[in-house]
Design a protein that fits this description.
Layout: H1 2-24, H2 33-36, H3 46-62, H4 77-86, H5 92-106, E1 115-120, H6 127-138, E2 148-152, H7 153-156, H8 163-180, E3 183-189, H9 196-206, E4 220-227, H10 231-243, H11 253-266, H12 271-274, H13 276-279, E5 285-288, H14 294-307, H15 314-322, E6 326-327, E7 334-335, H16 342-345
Parallel strand pairs: 1-4, 1-5, 2-3, 3-4
Antiparallel strand pairs: 6-7
Helix pairs in contact: 4-5, 4-6, 8-9, 10-11, 14-15
């Protein structure tokens, strides 16, 4: 209720500024007869107008308004590309596919459906990290934005007997968020544990929609599904390619995605693969996250030190990387936990 009152107050404030601008500078009104009515008969010098422009920009930095759109939405694709390149380790396929998919969705003026990306791989390989990078670069407040909602299957929808209630709550939250924001991001963690009824409730939001008015810009919605489903298939395929002499960076989507999709579709212990989201091809891209190697774990350890502004040594990075368990037993190639728990392990090396 408080948020609604604040939005109403912001709307009144925006209207006040529009009236002020139009009465001082009628040429800015663009046909707003109400605002143009009753000219004050005076004008400010150019310097005064510049000050008002600065004040308006300052006001918009605290409100959900901007002449260019909604100030909560940043869509910093350059920053996203940089973050995926510098901060995400060992995931060249995810980096390229996510950036291409998001850029291709945001640039056209009339999206005909929501963008649905499904991230798959072992725990600790970067699925949640990429979701956070997307939120941080697409929205001013990142995951805290009013336009972003995160759902964890076992936390938000823990009891199957309440699935009807969960369906109503989920549908209501999606609708309200879309009404509040012209561009929304919904993240579903542990997607393989979502009840089939909840997956069915999402279907209508992922289907193609015919715009009611082609002159009105369609709202944009991005759905992210994060899952461990298919992780073992990805790891096995990567291991076979490495053992055959392939370089990790030469691995292509074609080497992994067909096997990943087949594994998801035949999965019987998860409703995700059997859902109409998958069967009706409503997921736009299945994004494989590769298992991480020793060198990637070192980089994660370095980033953990840097994020806390702590000094580190190359020896400390090696020791942290060696603390992880590597599989398979013979080859010892992949960290079984990826980079998970790295930030906690650096505490052992603090003075």
């Amino acid at each position: 209720g408080l948020r609604e009152r604040l939005r109403e107050a912001a709307a009144l404030s925006r209207r006040y500024w529009a009236l002020l601008r139009c009465r001082v500078w009628p040429e800015d009104c663009d046909g707003d007869e109400e605002a143009r009515a009753g000219p004050l008969g005076w004008s400010l010098p150019l310097l005064g107008r510049q000050y008002l422009d600065i004040l308006t920009s300052w006001y918009c930095s605290f409100q959900d308004c901007c002449r260019s759109g909604d100030c909560r939405i940043s869509n910093n694709l350059t920053g996203l590309a940089s973050d995926l390149s510098v901060r995400l380790h060992g995931q060249h396929l995810a980096r390229e596919l996510v950036l291409t998919a998001v850029r291709g969705y945001l640039e056209p003026p009339q999206p005909h459906k929501a963008l649905a990306l499904s991230f798959h791989g072992w725990s600790g390989t970067g699925k949640n990290f990429v979701a956070r990078l997307l939120a941080e670069n697409l929205y001013r407040d990142g995951l805290r934005s009013d336009c972003v909602k995160v759902f964890i299957a076992t936390f938000h929808f823990p009891h199957p007997k309440y699935v009807d209630l969960y369906q109503e709550q989920l549908t209501s939250q999606i609708r309200k968020t879309q009404e509040r924001c012209p561009q929304t991001l919904f993240i579903f963690d542990e997607a393989e544990k979502l009840h089939p009824g909840l997956l069915e409730a999402l279907r209508s939001h992922l289907e193609a929609q015919a715009p009611e008015n082609h002159r009105v810009e369609s709202p944009r919605t991005v759905f992210l599904f994060l899952s461990n489903l298919g992780g073992s298939v990805i790891n096995e395929a990567v291991l076979n390619l490495l053992m055959a002499g392939w370089s990790r960076e030469d691995i292509k989507l074609d080497h992994l995605v067909p096997q990943l999709e087949a594994e998801i579709a035949k999965s019987t212990d998860s409703g995700f693969g059997q859902s109409r989201l998958v069967k009706e091809n409503l997921i736009d891209f299945f994004v494989p996250f590769l298992p991480l190697e020793y060198r990637h774990v070192r980089l994660c350890a370095r980033d953990a030190f840097l994020s806390q502004e702590l000094p580190y040594t190359e020896e400390a990075l090696d020791q942290i990387a060696k603390m992880m368990v590597y599989v398979p037993k013979e080859e010892q190639l992949f960290s079984s936990q990826g980079c998970k728990s790295i930030s906690q392990r650096i505490n052992y090396f603090l003075p």
